[in-house]
Amino acid sequence: DAGVTQSPTHLIKTRGQQVTLRCSPKSGHDTVSWYQQALGQGPQFIFQYYEEEERQRGNFPDRFSGHQFPNYSSELNVNALLLGDSALYLCASSFLAGPTGELFFGEGSRLTVL
Amino acid sequence: GQQVMQIPQYQHVQEGEDFTTYCNSSTTLSNIQWYKQRPGGHPVFLIQLVKSGEVKKQKRLTFQFGEAKKNSSLHITATQTTDVGTYFCAGVNNDMRFGAGTRLTVKP
Question: Any idea what DSSP says for residue B40?
Fold first, then answer.
């Protein structure tokens, strides 16, 4: 039973560029949440997708957008990258939307913006 | 909005000593979750507390949820080197907010 898988694991971009990160949830899960974790900080909630729609959103600008596909996988897109976007981006899957369920995290995608 | 504060930020202990991390929310929570993140790893779910005053144990780990459902603690008895990592609480209300974590190092 595959857990949460994310790609790519590492990437380097320059300011102003755009990036797409991908996530496949744990088998049987239908909800995907994205988190940004800066070095030495806790994960910060970006948004949650369920039934191919954004259900909840944290305090992140519109440069951060996402998508969920019919097979429950998800993408996180960040436009006009800033140096401050450098972080570990974590995808977490759960069963059913909402904040109450146990989250299963992937290994993350480490983004460096130069 | 809801804020979750966690102290201490760092804790260094000798193997065999006890360790406690505290979590405080600015608002009443519906439940609280605890996660552990090993160095270079990803957060892994440890437990969820739902009831006021709830206490749960997992071997050497004891988790408590305050009577007012605004604070929680994680206590590790007789730490081992395998306990090394960062422990996060996540307060759940309308959304889930993680604390900044307590980084535990254990000297053999």
Answer: T
